[in-house]
Design goal:
heterodimer, A: 224 residues, Glutaconate Coenzyme A-transferase
Chain lengths: 224, 219
């Protein structure tokens, strides 16, 4: 049975877990799982996701409260607390260009070893990276990313775990959903199998291990 | 030389003049966001957002915000007819394939060859690169909007960038509170001077050599 309680889902997330999260600037971060992780006081997480959210929004809350020891992301500009932790040596951060990061996640989810990208090949981010030449063009070898647990947010799931997303809250979620050894989907609505139109499903349920119903966002958005 | 609201609006308006009908355009955060306000409704322009939208529209009215419909900066937007939603990998596929006609972004430094530095000040600030490398390296036309000089008064247009590059030789046009420069094969060409500044001011506050257009305009 994939549909479970928040506590049952949280059992997969422990101190030191490599945790990948969907979302972009807080939008599409799963709020109830994040809140549960805070209450459980999970520490030493290795986080992989687009950004560090905002200090009091989304995954940013975990980072600001010192729950992560390492972060692989494309930027942390919207979370000054993350920047401070990094400067203080309390958070190790690895930056990938945004498009490269999602391709690394996607390739992990697709069972590939990585991707070949020429983005940033002339920048300091290319330092110490392996390159390969194909048809006379040089590419960086960008290794795939996977995680012990992936957490995503979606609009609807059926009990098999098929997922439908909502507007721009889709963002990195379908990619992250494929890249976890265990993937937990937090959704606004859970329906019976057969109620979703197969044509509208973005993430096939085979990638999803657990489904929980969201209790909704418990933070104030920056524009509120 | 603080940048008042009028100056920001003036820069945004000038940048909007570079956008033509049917273009696909990406706007960075800050002043670039304002550019959309100056694109006439008669033009069909598809604004691209890195999180996964093609066809973003104006900000919603107060109270009509939808937390699940935001731009790449995390602020609420609307969409126009013909818009589509997709995942972020597709959003970056659009960029890497060179399907973005114009990208408009901010900068810390630009060199006379069009090198762009806009993501890191080593030892001081590491906000991270976001999607800037993809946009700078792969867009058909890259327009930089920025203050002509930094807060401590030093030129931001330089012979060579001091900061690590986002991408080399990618900038096509620089619009500041003082001037508009084109970056050509032979280097910088001054196209326009913004009043109240004069060509002498531009000479004084630009850290690179430049040619002056035969049709130099004051705007």
């Amino acid at each position: 049975m994939k549909v479970c309680t928040v506590d049952e889902a949280l059992d997969f997330i422990k101190d030191g877990t490599t945790l990948m999260y969907g979302g972009f600037g807080g939008v599409g971060n799963p709020p109830t799982l994040i809140d549960g992780m805070l209450k459980k006081r999970v520490t030493n997480l290795i986080l992989i996701g687009n950004d560090a959210g905002f200090p009091d929004i989304g995954i940013g809350k975990i980072i600001s409260q010192g729950g992560a020891k390492r972060l692989i992301a494309s930027h942390i500009g919207s979370n000054p607390v993350a920047g401070q932790l990094m400067s203080d040596g309390k958070l190790e951060v690895e930056f990938s260009p945004q498009g490269t990061l999602v391709e690394r996640i996607r390739s992990g989810g697709m069972g590939l070893g990585g991707v070949l990208v020429d983005v940033g090949i002339d920048s300091i981010l290319a330092k110490n990276k392996e390159t390969v030449e194909i048809d006379g063009k040089r590419f960086l070898i960008e290794p795939a990313l996977t995680a012990d647990v992936a957490i995503v947010y979606a609009k609807k799931a059926d009990t098999y775990g098929n997922l439908v997303y909502d507007k721009s809250a889709r963002n990195t979620n379908p990619l992250v959903a494929m890249a976890g050894q265990v993937t937990i989907a937090e959704v606004e609505e859970i329906v019976e199998v057969g109620e979703l139109d197969p044509d509208e499903i973005v993430t096939p349920g085979v990638f999803i291990d657990k489904v929980i119903k969201t209790q909704g966002v418990d933070w104030k958005w920056v524009w509120e | 030389m603080g940048m008042g609201i009028n100056v920001r609006e003036r820069i945004a308006k000038r940048a909007a003049a570079e956008i033509t009908d049917r273009m696909t355009v990406n706007l960075g955060i800050g002043i670039p966001t304002l550019v959309a306000n100056y694109v006439p409704d008669s033009m069909k322009v598809m604004f691209h957002a890195e999180n996964g939208i093609l066809g973003t529209g104006p900000s919603p009215e107060n109270g009509d915000e939808d937390a699940n419909l935001c731009n790449a900066g995390g602020f609420p937007i609307t969409v126009i007819p013909g818009a589509s939603y997709f995942d972020s990998a597709t959003a970056f596929g659009i960029i890497r394939r060179g399907l973005v006609d114009v990208t408009i972004l901010g900068a810390l430094e630009v060199s006379e060859r069009g090198d762009l530095a806009n993501w890191i000040i080593p030892g001081k600030k590491v906000p991270g690169v976001g999607g800037a490398i993809e946009l700078a390296q792969k867009s058909k036309k890259v327009i930089v909007l920025m203050n002509h000089i930094s807060k401590n008064g030093s030129p931001k247009i330089l012979k060579t960038c001091n900061l690590p590059l986002t991408a080399p030789q990618c900038v096509d046009l620089i619009i500041t509170d003082m001037a508009v420069f084109e970056v050509g094969a032979r280097g910088l060409v001054l196209l326009e001077v913004m009043v109240p500044y004069t060509k002498e001011d531009v000479d004084k506050y630009t850290g690179a050599e430049f040619a002056v257009s035969e049709n130099l305009k004051t705007i």
